[in-house]
Design goal:
Blueprint: E1 6-11, H1 17-28, E2 34-39, H2 48-55, H3 71-75, E3 79-82, E4 96-99, H4 110-131
Parallel strand pairs: 1-2, 1-3, 3-4
Helix pairs in contact: 1-4, 2-4
Length: 136
């Protein structure tokens, strides 16, 4: 892994789960981890319920836009975390891959997105503990 670890979050539309995860990782790591997110079939905009749920946490993702998954993004990342995108993510040797099974927030109201958001936050906190040794 590089000096500054890099993580790529991938879901189908890059509009909910992966956007929330990327925002949490960037926020909670204080920029000590390089963060990317992408989707195999990006949506036109970030899920409004995900935006609202993250605003409740003091994290503003209104300016984010869904991005298309590229092999370059995968190659440039140390850790690739998929969230319900199946086999659409290219596999490269030497990368760490994880699949986080999380409910899709698409079409849900903010009350239903909050538990998904909270699960993502918990997983992000664990990921930060793994990637950044204490004291770094």
């Amino acid at each position: 892994m590089s000096e500054k670890p890099s993580v790529l979050f991938v879901c189908v539309h890059n509009a909910g789960r992966s956007q929330m995860a990327a925002a949490y990782l960037n926020h909670l790591s204080g920029g000590r981890i390089e963060v990317r997110s992408a989707g195999s079939e990006p949506a036109d905009r970030v899920n409004p319920a995900a935006v609202e749920a993250m605003l409740e946490e003091g994290i503003d993702i209104r300016a984010e836009t869904p991005k298309l998954l590229t092999t370059e993004a995968v190659k440039a990342s140390d850790v690739v975390i998929t969230m319900g995108c199946g086999d659409t993510c290219p596999i490269f040797p030497g990368k760490r891959y994880e699949d986080w099974e999380l409910e899709d927030p698409a079409g849900k109201r903010v009350a239903a997105v909050r538990p998904i958001r909270d699960e993502i936050k918990s997983r992000i906190e664990g990921l930060i503990d793994e990637l950044l040794p204490s004291g770094v």
